[in-house]
Design a protein that fits this description.
Elements: H1 2-21, H2 25-34, H3 48-55, H4 57-85, H5 93-106, H6 119-129, H7 131-148, H8 151-173, H9 178-195, H10 197-205
Helix pairs in contact: 1-4, 1-5, 2-3, 2-4, 3-4, 4-5, 4-6, 5-6, 5-9, 6-7, 7-8, 8-9
Length: about 220
């Protein structure tokens, strides 16, 4: 019975996380401010950077808060559901929920499975997972932006740094689950990198635009 309740709570948390992830604030904010679909403009991506280039700082700030907080919310609600119904939190709980909120953001059921690239929502999740890892990869992101002024390159660099930082913190803490945590981090980072595949092609051929320039 306990195993059944745990499985039910995990499935319910996964469904809720995907649902929350599918609420795309870039699309919602753009429709509210401009009555348009952000995916028809700029890079075509339903994310904060494209909103910033298309509509400006105000709408982009709303998208930043919304996407960041939905990662936090998904994990915290998952804690409540699994802790209450399942009777405890398995060590993989946070990463399990993170996977589904990421999938919801990148492939939202409400918007034809065409969403964002997962940077802000993953940042919210990582803050819950380990605040030290969050600030390490935030530092990587900000350093790359400051030097190269290319947001996509900074995002990819932060994604690559995520598993390394997770492994380092796990070893420092002597966590018994350090290898599993690192593997989950690799999966989440892989999703972010996959969603940036078009940016990677542009980076390789030198056509990716620095921050502040129009597409």
């Amino acid at each position: 019975m306990e195993i059944l309740l745990l499985c039910v709570s995990l499935l319910l948390s996964a469904f809720l996380a995907y649902f929350i992830g599918s609420i795309n604030f870039a699309i919602i904010v753009t429709r509210l401010f401009a009555r348009k679909d952000i995916r028809d403009f700029g890079s075509g991506n339903a994310g904060m950077t494209n909103v910033l280039r298309t509509l400006g700082a105000g709408p982009a700030a709303l998208v930043t808060v919304g996407d960041f907080c939905k990662g936090l919310l998904a994990v915290l609600l998952g804690h409540l559901i699994i802790g209450y119904l399942g009777g405890g939190l398995p060590f993989f709980t946070d990463y399990f929920i993170a996977l589904f909120v990421m999938l919801g953001h990148c492939f939202p059921i409400f918007y034809g499975f065409k969403g964002g690239k997962g940077i802000l929502v993953s940042a919210g999740v990582i803050l819950v997972l380990d605040w030290r890892v969050f600030f390490l990869i935030l530092a990587v992101f900000l350093i790359v932006v400051a030097i190269r002024k290319i947001v996509s390159l900074a995002s990819i660099s932060a994604a690559v740094a995520f598993p390394a930082a997770t492994l380092a913190m796990g070893l420092i803490d002597r966590s018994p689950h350090v290898l599993w945590d690192t593997l989950f981090a690799v999966v989440l980072a892989g999703i972010v990198i996959f969603m940036h595949r078009a940016n990677i092609r542009r980076l390789l051929n030198g056509t990716e635009k620095p921050f502040g320039k129009k597409k």
